[in-house]
Amino acid sequence: MAAARREHLRHLVWPALEEGKWVLCDRFSDSTFAYQGFGHELGVSFVETLNQLTMGNFQPDLTFIFQLSEEAGLARKKESLVSEDRYERFPEEFHRRVSKGYLALLEAESQRCVPLSAHTSIEVIADHIWRTLAERHFLSHLDPSTLS
Ligand SMILES: Nc1ncnc2c1ncn2[C@@H]1O[C@H](COP(=O)(O)OP(=O)(O)O)[C@@H](O)[C@H]1O
Ligand SMILES: Cc1cn([C@H]2C[C@H](O)[C@@H](COP(=O)(O)OP(=O)(O)O)O2)c(=O)[nH]c1=O
């Protein structure tokens, strides 16, 4: 996973950022923090060392953490056409630890990581994301007060 992430960074992400493009990424190193660090209980310092080897001091500028109750998440997964992966068959305690990992991350990196309720509609969630980007001056041409 770490090798794949480094390849992804070197060949796609870093060159795109150099060109001034925006890069949008699902999961990324914070999932390693929550899943390997907490879920698999490998610990924070192990993940920090791994992340340092994989990407140096690089960090995303902004990370959204979508929060959803266990019940609602499982219900959505049942409706989804995508088959469940190995991790989704892990026991409940594993997922509780992963969830704790994300909460710890939100506390430790409150500037970069923004919690977002995923219980609302896709449109409301999208609006929340646009608003946050505008408030944090990522969209200099957009005035947050003009958003619905
Ligand atoms: N805000 C939402 N409201 C209702 N259903 C949603 C919402 N967001 C995602 N879904 C549905 O939930 C399922 C899983 O979402 P997805 O984003 O693929 O999760 P993951 O990346 O964790 O696998 C999909 O079927 C998707 O259509
Ligand atoms: C990115 C990442 C994912 N995972 C886990 C979480 C997922 O259950 C599984 C697959 O992730 P992924 O392929 O990103 O699928 P999805 O976002 O559709 O669930 O791997 C880790 O354990 N560590 C990581 O660093």
TrEMBL record:
Signal peptide: none annotated. SUPFAM superfamilies: P-loop containing nucleoside triphosphate hydrolases (SSF52540). Pfam families: Thymidylate_kin. GO terms for molecular function: ATP binding; dTMP kinase activity. PANTHER family: THYMIDYLATE KINASE, UMP-CMP KINASE 2, MITOCHONDRIAL. Belongs to the thymidylate kinase family. This is dTMP kinase. It comes from Daphnia pulex (Water flea). The lineage of its organism: Eukaryota, Metazoa, Ecdysozoa, Arthropoda, Crustacea.
